[in-house]
Write a structure and sequence with these properties.
By secondary structure, the protein is an alpha/beta fold. It has 3 domains: about 90 residues, Ubiquitin-like (UB roll); about 160 residues, Domain of unknown function (DUF4445) (Nucleotidyltransferase, domain 5, 2-Layer Sandwich), CATH 3.30.420.480; about 230 residues, no CATH class. The protein has 14 helices and 22 strands. The protein binds FE2/S2 (inorganic) cluster (FES).
């Protein structure tokens, strides 16, 4: 009997030889297949189609496929092992990674630095010449922890309940070292004097090797929020041992140093006028404030905006409907990569709801007109009544968060000078439609799409001596929205379109 089998991957036209019994998950992750539920067999996000050959299917796997409405030509990669030569079709899961090229003010100094944004999904690093501010090299990667779950909650579960904390720490540190070593090679061996890393609180804990247990159960709080310093040797970097590697401190259990960096990037702590920062990533983080006082909070908004929890939802990759407009025939959709539509991503979802509100297919309570429980966008892609409810929950959470923080600080909507929207998703949204559905209720001219504020802030902090970061930490208070009086009423009101 053969000991090795061949897996062919379509449409990538790749061939991989692996030993019999290899988990498909180990092979496919490096080809971009994602494992949103961390391999529990519940989400179907890791599904692959068997085009030729076979992969053994047991009764449990069969019933999981049935629950997900998938026929027997599919396999869940997280439940599969290589049992023979096979040809699989995998989607084009090319993750979009947002770097940063915004200009910023700085005081020139000698040397080089590296800014590193460690996201739940993606990782991006830039080498900066501290004398000119020029970005000399960029490295991006998918966070290798993603094979153990797409969001922070599944990473916490894997770390705490499946004994995976060490694995997650090792995976992310190894990838970090590969990226930094590559950047140093690319830039002909520059020696960074400082590497600043930012990320959400779960990434902070995993990178720094801090215990995630307190974040796994009520009240989901961690007190271990400080910055962490490492030497290059500790992290396996091939560079001078004088380089200081610092993971910046976090602001709260679910508001990390990516947001701290964002506050620095938009200059909130120095602004006389109040500003708002909204990061619409996997979590929806919100910050409101000015040079006197800053409040921050997190909401469970991300899943809908990132396509999770939406029946035909997907990330903004090939085959996703990314925008919807009204046309004479009804609607016109734009599909990423000009391919057949496979699903809809967050920006398309916002557009679709805005258009259906305008055309009366959905009422202001979010109910689909008539008897149907879904609305088609293409013959195969549709939105369900539940999807609309999911979006209502997400946009209601963000809008309520902004309102509560603003009112707690005593600002009226018209006092706000600008609303900065950060994150990859924020770069693609149609501002008029975010206003139409009540997600961001501010005049369009006040809203600024800022891209990756985490990376920009990390770069800016390379030029600082730490005073500005300390100033932000001193001025910022984390607020738990759910415990705010009237939260439920405000939330219910903001769920309406
Ligand atoms: S079904 Fe969710 S990762 Fe496989």
């Amino acid at each position: 009997m053969k000991k090795y089998y061949t897996i062919r991957l379509e449409p990538l036209d790749k061939k991989v030889e692996v030993p019999k019994g290899t988990p498909l998950k180990d092979v496919l992750f490096s080809y971009g297949v994602e494992f949103p539920c961390g391999g529990k067999g519940l989400c179907g996000g890791c599904r692959v189609k068997v085009l030729k050959g076979d992969i053994f299917l047991d009764e449990r796997h069969k019933s999981l496929l049935k629950k997900l409405n998938l026929d027997l030509s599919w396999r869940l990669a997280c439940q599969s092992y290589v049992t023979g030569d096979v040809t699989l079709e995998i989607g084009q899961f090319d993750t979009f990674i947002l770097a940063d090229s915004s200009p910023f003010r700085f005081k020139p100094r000698e040397g080089y630095g590296i800014a590193f944004d460690l996201g739940t999904t993606t990782m991006v690093a830039q080498v900066v010449n501290l004398h000119t501010g020029e970005v000399m090299g960029v490295e991006t990667a998918v966070n290798p922890q993603a094979q153990h779950g797409a969001d922070v909650i599944s990473r916490i579960e894997y770390a705490v309940f499946r004994d995976g904390q060490e694995t997650l720490t090792r995976l992310v540190r190894e990838k970090f070292a590969i990226m930094i070593n590559r950047l140093i090679r690319k830039t002909c061996g520059v020696v960074p004097e400082k590497i600043v890393v930012v990320g959400n609180t779960v990434m902070h804990h995993l990178f720094c090797g801090k215990d995630l247990t307190p974040m796994a159960s009520y009240p989901f709080e961690t007190s271990d929020r400080g910055s962490c310093h490492f030497t290059p040797k500790e992290l396996g970097l091939k560079t001078d041992d004088h380089t200081d590697i610092e993971f910046l401190p976090v602001l709260g259990s679910f508001v990390g140093s990516d947001i701290l960096a964002g506050i620095l990037a938009i200059g909130m702590a120095e602004s006389e006028d109040p500003l708002i920062l909204v990061d619409l990533g996997t979590n929806g983080e919100i910050v409101v404030g000015n040079r006197d006082r800053i409040l921050c909070a997190s909401t469970a908004a991300g899943p809908a905006f990132e396509g999770t929890n939406i029946h035909m939802g997907m990330r903004a990759t090939t085959g996703a409907i990314s925008s919807v407009t009204k046309s004479e025939e009804g609607i016109r959709v734009h599909i990423i990569g000009n391919e057949k539509a496979r699903g809809i991503c967050g920006s398309g979802l916002i557009d679709a709801i805005a258009v259906f509100l305008e055309t009366g297919k959905i009422d202001t309570g979010g109910k689909i007109a008539g008897e149907s429980d879904h609305i088609n966008l293409t013959p195969k892609v549709y939105l369900t009544q539940r999807d609309i409810r999911e979006l209502q929950l997400a946009k209601g959470a963000v809008a309520s968060g902004i309102q509560i923080l603003r009112e707690t600080l005593g600002f009226a909507p018209e006092d706000i000078r600008n609303v900065y929207v950060s994150g990859a998703f924020g770069s693609f949204i149609n501002l008029e439609n975010t206003r139409r559905i009540g997600l961001l209720k501010y005049p369009e001219e006040k809203i600024i799409k800022m891209g990756n504020t985490a990376l920009l802030g990390a770069k800016m902090s390379l030029f600082e001596n730490g005073d500005k970061i300390r100033d932000i930490l001193q001025k910022t208070t984390h607020l738990s929205l759910e415990t705010t009086p009237h939260f439920q009423d405000i939330f219910a009101e903001n769920m309406m379109f």
